[in-house]
Amino acid sequence: MKINAGEGINEYYAQTLAMLFFPGAKFPKQHEEDPDPSELTVSCVDENGGYHAYARMKREDGKEASGEGIFVPDDGSISHQRGKKLAVGRAVFAAGKELFGVQPPWGVLTGVRPAKVAAEFLAAGGGIQKTRQYLKTEYFLSQKKAALCAAVAASELKLKKQLEPDMCSVYISIPFCPTRCAYCSFVSYTTPRLLSMIDEYLDRLIVEVTAVFNHVRRTGQRVACIYIGGGTPTILSAEQLNKLLSVITKLTDVDALLEFTVEAGRPDTITEEKLAVCKSCGVTRISVNPQSLSDAVLENIGRKHTAMDFFRAYGIAKESGIRDINVDLIAGLPGDNFTRFSRTLDRICELDPGNITVHSFCVKKSSEFLRQSTDIYKHSGSDAVKCVDYSQLKLRNTGYKPYYLYRQKNTVGNLENVGFAREGREGIYNVIMMEEFHSVYGAGAGAVTRLVHWGDDPTRAEKIKRIINPKYPYEYLRDDVSGADMEAKLFEAEQELAEGKEAAKITENL
Length: 510
Hints:
Elements: E1 2-5, H1 11-18, E2 39-47, E3 50-58, E4 64-71, H2 80-100, H3 115-123, H4 128-139, H5 143-160, E5 167-174, H6 192-195, H7 198-218, E6 222-230, H8 238-251, E7 259-265, H9 272-280, E8 285-288, H10 295-300, H11 307-320, E9 324-331, H12 338-351, E10 355-360, H13 368-372, H14 381-397, E11 401-407, E12 416-421, H15 428-435, E13 440-443, E14 448-453, E15 463-468, H16 473-478, H17 483-499, E16 504-505
Parallel strand pairs: 1-2, 5-6, 5-13, 6-7, 7-8, 8-9, 9-10
Antiparallel strand pairs: 2-3, 3-4, 10-12, 11-12, 14-15, 15-16
Helix pairs in contact: 1-2, 3-5, 4-5, 7-8, 7-17, 8-9, 12-14
C-alpha cells in the first residue's frame, strides 16, 4: 500500500491510520515493488489557530473516498502536537468510513496503550463519565470501547498509588520454548542446539542479574516487581530454576516485593517440583496459559499440549500455594469459533483464577501462519468480535474487573488485549509496562532496560532511555561483558538521562 504523507505528518502514524481500514497492509520502501494499488494521501495545514486535514483513500478495486478533519484548541487540555494528529486522524477516519461503510470501534485512538490518553484526562481532574464522553467526542470511540478504556485508566491510576518514587522493577528473560507456536512473534528458541545452551545462558544471565540488583541497591532504589518471562521460563528444570531464583533471593528482599512473577506459560512444562521451587523462593504470581481448551485448535496453532494437560498443570499451580494464578486465552484463533471460545472461557471462570487475560489473535511477520497464508489477516473478524464482547461481559458479570489494556497492529477485527482480575489480584508489572510509571531493568537475551525520567508534569513521564540487549541467545553469550562493566553502563545511562543527553522524549500517541 502506498502512503503519501504531507509535510509535517509522520509517515508511520499515517500507516497506523491506514491499517484501521486495511488490516495486514504492507508498506514497501520506495525502491521496492508494491503490487498493492491501495493508497492513502493525507495533508494538514494550519488554519485559524487550529489544523485542517484532508485525506483521500483508494481501495484495491479503484474506488475512492475523501474526508476532512478539523481541530481547534480551546481549553488547553490537548497539546498542539496531539491536536494536529487528531485532525489528521479525523480526516482519515471520515474517508475510510465513507469508502468502507464501517466505523472502527477504537476511532482514531491508535498506539499500543490507548488507556494512556484516558489516564491523563482522569489524572487532570476528569471523572469517569467525562472521560468516556471525551473519548467518544474527541477520538470517536464506540460507547463500549470508551467505557472499557476509562475503566482501565481508573484501575491503573489506583494501582499507581502503591508505587513510591524510589521504586523500580526488573525483567528477566528466558527466551526458550519447548515448541514454537504458529502465531508467535516473541524471541524464543526451540531447536535442540539452542536448548543445549540453557546452562551456559543461565551462567551468563546470573552475572547480569547480579549487576542489575547491585546497581539498584547502590542507587538507593527499591524493587517493586520482578517478572521472569520468555519464552517459557518453566522450560528450565527444577534445578535450573532453583539456581536462578536462589540468586535473586540473595540479591533482594523478596518478601518486600509487591509482586514476583514467573510466567510459567506452557502447561506441558509445569511440574510440582518446579512450582515448589518457585514457592520456596518467594514467587507470588504465575501464568498457566492454555490459549484454548479445544484440542483441535491447540494442534492447529502448534501447541504440544492438550486441554487435560492444562487442567493437570492448573491443579498443580493451585496446590502449590502460590498466591496468584493468571490464565491467558486468545480470541479469534484460526480454527476456533464463538462456540468453542465461549465454552473455554466458561470453564476457565469455573476455576476462578485471580487473573484472566484475553488476547485478540495477532500474527506478526515472522510467524508460521503468515508464511502459510498471506490472507490470515482477513480471517473473519466478526466471530472474534463476538468472542471479545462475550469475554468482557462474562468476566465483568463474574466479578472480574479490567485493569490493563493494550493493542497491537494486525489483530483480527482491530481488537484489543485486556487483563481482568479479582479485586486486589491485578498484575502490577503489566500496568507498569503499559504506563511507564517507573524504570524497568532488563536482563537476558532480547531484554530491554527502560529508564524513565519524570519532569514537572505529574501525569506523564517526560523522557525515557532504552538499553537493548542482544536479541539472540548466541549473540548474548558472545557479548562477554563483566558484571562491573554492566553496572558502569547502567550508571552512565542514568547520568545521561538525568542530564538530558541521548534521551528520547515521550511521544504523544493517539
